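Morning!

This is the sequence you dropped in the shared folder:
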Amino acid sequence: MAKKRRPQTKAATSQLTDGEIPVVGAREPCPCGSGRRYKACHGRAAAQAVTELVRRPFEGLPGECDWVAMRELVPAATATLKLRDGLPEGVPSATLATVLPMAWPGLRREDGSVMIGLQNDTPSGDLSRDVADVLRRALVAEPGNPVAGERPSADGPRLQDLLDPDEPLVPEVHDGFEFWLTDAESASGDVAASLERANSAALPTSRLESVEAAYWCRTPEKNHLRWVMPHGEDELLDALARLHASGASSLGEDTRLVGSFRAHGLLVPVWDLPSAMTAEDCEKPAAAFAERLLEALGVSTPLTADERRARSGLANRQITLS
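The structure's back. Tokens below.
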């Protein structure tokens, strides 16, 4: 026997504006008066707003490239966060971290300070809104407690709304995860074992000082430089192709531009380096390359045949992380 449908009544006229639509059950009549279920009416737009992927979530934040690097490249790093309206009473500091113990999205420490983890799975398609939601809840959490990730409302604030737009992000790269603890030297038992496991899995990484958002890392076979760049993808690929075709894309002897990947709307060129080449060894070559790149970015003539081939090769070696 077929199940009877629950009758729905249709209001003669809409009584609420879009901005006043309350959240109701997905299968309930939409309060706008359309007679349709909420999930098929105003609920559809609300769900799409929460799940739609924001491809460049850190756009507009000072240090956007370093935000991307802390999210995708760096194992252990922290950076101080400054809020537009200052920190609430009882919160001495707010710190962005690459990752927190147990992959917690956020943590209110015993002393009232707040730490936010960036390398977490997020519940919506807008990473900026997700992290901002964790930050807001961490600021009012009871000291000594982690903060879980929750799906934020579609109209909730983003990092761009909460953080001081004039305060740059300055990552501090760490050798390990001792920043998790106020007194790492006294750690013992399970805590010490967990810290040791995390440290052993982290690749040695350094942030260059001569250029922005370039990170050296050591791997067992070779070293790499991964450089998050703010330029538009097409113009950056053209410039890299011009340099590559002219033999000017390397960072010195036995180094090679091997490709790039996309991360959160930005392009990240990658160089292979000799295993003996340290972060310090990269400083001068990277600064010189930045000057060559700036010059190449200013060229507007069509690419030559060799440059087009170089561009095609670079484009074919791209992957997308986000």
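Headline: The chain has three domains: 20-51, 64-201, 205-320.

More detail when I'm at my desk.
O.
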